[in-house]
Amino acid sequence: MINTSAIISPDATIADDVSIGPSSVVGANVEIGKGTWIGPHVVINGPTKIGEDNRIYQFASIGEDPQDKKFHGESESRLEIGDRNTIREFCTFNRGTEEGGGITSMGNDNWIMAYVHIAHDCVIGNNTIFANNASLAGHVEVGDFAILGGYTLVHQFCRIGMHTITRFSTGTSKDIPPFMVAAWDPAKPKGINREGLMRRDFSQSTINSLRQAYKIIYKKNLTIVEACKQLEDITEEYPEVSSLLEFIQNSERGIIR
Questions:
Q1: Which fold, 7-139?
Q2: Counting Cβ atoms within 10 Å, is residue 255 exposed (0-12), middle (13-18) or buried (19+)?
Q3: Active site (annotated) includes residue 51
Q4: Could you point out which of 40, 130, 145, 183 has its C-alpha 20 to 30 Å from the C-alpha of 152?
Q5: How far is Cα 96 from Cα 212, in angstroms, rounded to an integer?
Q6: Per the residue annotation, which of 33, 121, 149, 161 is the catalytic one?
Q7: Mean pLDDT for the chain?
Q8: Cα–Cα distance measured from residue 224 to residue 257, given in angstroms and rounded to the nearest whole number
Q9: What was the pLDDT predicted at 65?
Q10: Where is 239: in which H helix or E strand?
């Protein structure tokens, strides 16, 4: 299952059924779980842990040093990737830094298209989609089921909420709350992600409550403090609105408006 032209460090731990293509390089302190397929000309450096049943296509660079001038080879720098992720051509995933806790992480069932960059200390959830050339700066968090349109750019320390979607060429230096649609550069809110929520079997009453929450945040000319107070009135019945409120209250960079 490992091509004879692949270069594998003796300090790598690779499950018996892992497939590794021609001219790929797997460095020391790399762990690859069963069922994972590595295409040709892939470079994986450690410390990196890759789970089961992943597919990593040609010319990807996985687990390379963080692009951070403060990084000086600290041993606690790691990259962790879960299960059943698809990582397409020319993607670059960097390990973490001491400032960010030392770990860049990705969950399960993510679909990562070509030329995506995930910088140091990013935290990616489950079931996300990153279209071609989406790029995250350091310390970015992306929630479950988020979809980043092609060429989306996210500034460092921003958060992208769960079930959000960005249109192509969106750029943000602010947090994007969950369940929202964002577009343009700088990113602006464009309503709730109704189509995505319907596809994931959210009830109509829940969608209506999120639409009401959107109007409170963005259509009533309220301050964030005033909007949060009004959101509290509809959080008990709908946990999704409670999650939205919590996201806004915990935002350090501020939300898009």
A1: UDP N-Acetylglucosamine Acyltransferase; domain 1 (2.160.10)
A2: buried
A3: no
A4: 40
A5: 39
A6: 121
A7: 97
A8: 10
A9: 95
A10: helix 239-249
211-239: pLDDT as tens digits: 999 999 999 999 999 999 999 988 888 89
**Hunting for tokens 């960005």 — which residue is that?**
166
Helix axes 239-249, 204-218, angle to 10 degrees: 30
What is the per-residue pLDDT across 156-174, written as a single tens digit (0 to 9) for each? 999 999 999 999 999 999 9
218's enclosing H/E stretch is helix 204-218
Q: What is the side-by-side strand order in the sheet with 86-87?
A: 19-20, 37-38, 55-56, 86-87, 111-112, 129-130, 147-148, 165-166, 180-183, 188-192
Is the bond preceding 186 in cis, omega lying within 30 degrees of 0? yes
**7-139 with 197-249: one CATH topology?**
no
What tokens appear for 214 in the block? 């959107």
Q: For 69-94, what is each residue's pLDDT tens digit?
A: 999 888 789 999 999 999 999 999 99
SS3 content of the chain, % helix, strand, coil (to 5): 15, 30, 55
CB 143 within 8 A of CB 160: yes
138, 143, 150, 161: the catalytic one is 138
Could you tell me which CATH number the domain at 197-249 has? 1.20.1180.10
Where along the chain do its domains lie? 7-139, 197-249
CB atoms within 10 A of CB 40: 15
| Residue 120 among the catalytic residues | yes
Catalytic residue among 33, 63, 120, 161: 120
- As to burial, measured by CB atoms within 10 angstroms (0-12 exposed, 13-18 middle, 19+ buried), residue 75 is exposed
Is 139 a known active-site residue? Answer: no
Backbone CA torsion sign across 120, 104, 175, 189: positive
Q: What is the pLDDT of residues 41-60, one digit of tens each?
A: 999 999 999 999 999 999 99
